[in-house]
Amino acid sequence: MKSAQQSPMEKTITATELLLGCAPVTIQRRVKWGECDPAGVVYMVNYGEYVVSAYELLMAVLLDEGLLKGKARHGVALPAKEFGIEFYASLRPDEDFLMTVEIADIRTRTFDLTVHGTSAANGRVFLAKLTLIAVDPTTRTASPLPERLVHKLAHYREDRALKSALMANV
Fold first, then answer.
1. Angle, vertex CA 56, rays to CA 19 and CA 46, nearest 5
2. DSSP states of 60-119 as a string?
3. pLDDT tens per residue, the chain (170 residues)?
4. Does 24 sit behind a cis peptide bond, omega within 30 degrees of 0 on the bond before it?
């Protein structure tokens, strides 16, 4: 007869990345051992992967489909034009952290998003900025952002600003 009590591992569902919310897009991520150096600190290059993953999830939420299908439907490629990151604390293996995605600016051909990384142990971990540029996939030249995409980006940004303003008044 089996015991009614479960082991801790049987009760735990583990994942590397979980989408916790859509307004704003908030992702919980767990650092994998293989993402770290021998001292147990995340290699810098892996932060780029974290940010790109956050961008892909943002676009999946905005487009209501996977990033590749959404870009194809809109007839646009969206490669990175610029990436920057400021570090405040390090992350270690098996540490959970949150990433919150904001739209910082929308221009004719490009838009900027920021990803704020935080952890329970360290508070602020990093702040990243990613600039994406619209490219015509046929000619491989810069093109205006599709109007429907601009509308979705602007709506997300305005919704976040409104919620932030409401929270400031509470």
1. 85
2. HHHHTS-HHHHHHHHT-B--EEEEEEEESS---TT-EEEEEEEEEEE-SSEEEEEEEEEE
3. 444 555 455 555 567 899 999 989 999 999 999 999 999 999 999 999 999 999 999 999 998 888 888 788 888 999 999 999 999 999 999 999 999 999 999 999 999 999 999 999 999 999 999 999 999 999 999 999 999 999 999 999 998 766 665 556 65
4. yes
| Token output for 27 | 């992702």
Burial status of residue 130 (CB atoms within 10 A of its CB: 0-12, 13-18, 19 or more): buried
Which residues make Cβ contacts (< 8 Å) with residue 93, sequence separation at least 6? 31, 32, 33, 35, 36, 40
Give the span between the Cα atoms of 126 and 140, in whole angstroms: 32
Q: How far is CA 60 from CA 63, 124, 152, in A?
A: 5, 26, 12
CATH superfamily of 17-168: Hotdog Thioesterase (3.10.129.10)
Helix (H, G, I), strand (E, B) or coil at 107: coil
